[in-house]
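Handout, page 2. Input:
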Amino acid sequence: MEIFKEYLIQNWPLILILLAFIISLFLTVFADKKTIIRMCILIAAIFLLSIVVFVEFNVTMVPEYKETRTVLMAIRYSATPLILAQVIYTNVKKFHWAVFIPALVLLILDIISIFTGIVFSIDSENVFHRGPLGLLPFIVVGLYSALLIFLLIKRSNKRWMEIIPIVFLIVSLGTGLILPFVLEGNYANIFCITIAIALFSYHEFSIHELTKKDSLTGLLNRHAYYADVSNTKNITAFISIDMDGLKEINDNIGHFAGDEALVTLSLCFMRALKFRQSAYRMGGDEFIIVCRRTSKEEVLMIVDNIKKYVAETKYSCSIGYSFNEDGKKTIDILLKESDEMMYANKDKYYRESGKDRRII
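Output:
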C-alpha cells in the first residue's frame, strides 16, 4: 500500500494528463476509430513505462535487485523509441508499420545487453554503466524525433498555425536528448510526464486546427478558403484540381476506396507545396491551391510536381492554373481562369480515355 501511495504522489500529474487525453480522444468527433485505438495504445505504453521507471528507481540502491534493475533498464531504454515510432504511426497518415524496425532492433540489442553489457550494464554494487553502444538509444531517439518533425512539416499546409505546434513538439522532444546528460538518471522521473504533455498539447492544437481543416485529407477546408482569400494581398496565382474517376471508384469499389484515393492525392499536393502556397479541399473531389508571392515559373513547377507525384499513384486528376501577372485580376477572375483550364483538361481526359463523363 505504501508503494502504491508513493507511486501516486510521484505520478499523479501524469495520471491526470493521460486521463484528460483519453477523455479528449473520445469526445473528439473528428477522430476515426483506428486513430483512437492507436492513441489509446500510446497512452497505455506511457502509463506502463511510468510504472517501470518507478520500480527501477526504487531498486536502484538495493544490490540484491541487480538482475531486476537490469531487466527494467532494458525495458526503459527500449520504450522511448517504441513510443516515438507509435507516435509517427498514429499521427502521420498512410505511414508504414516498418517505422518500428529500428526500435525493434534496439529492443533486441537491449535484451542482449542484459547478458553482455553491449549497451549498458549494472555492476555488483547496482551501479549503472554505459556500454560500447551506450549512446545508441539516444541516437535512435534523435532519428525518430527528426523523422517525426520532418513528416509533420512535410504533410502540413505549411502555415504558421500548424508550424507553431510542431515547434512546441520539437522543443519537448529535444529535452529527451539534452536533459538526460544534464540531470543524468533523474531525467527518467520527468520523461513520462514530458512526453505526455507534449503529445496532449499537440493533440489539442490539432483539434483546434480541425475547424479549419478537412478531416479526411488534412487539407484546409472551404471555410478556411473563404477566410483566407478575403485577404487578397500577395495572391499571385490559383491552381484548380479535380480528381478523375472518383464516382466510378465509389460506385464499383466503395466509398472507403474513394476516401483512400482522396487522401493519396492530397498527400501528393502537400508534397509539392512550399510555405507560400495553401491547398484546400472545396468538397467532393474538388481542390484549390492559392499561391502567394509565387512566380509563374514556380507555379508551373508546382503543377509539374503534382502531375509527377500523382503519376506515381494509380489515380489521375485534371489541373488548371491562372496567374496574376499584372496584379490587377480579382480572385473571381483568377478562379474562373484556372477552372476553365482545368475543365478543358478534364474534357481532354474523357476524349482520350473514351470514358463516359456521366459516370466519372
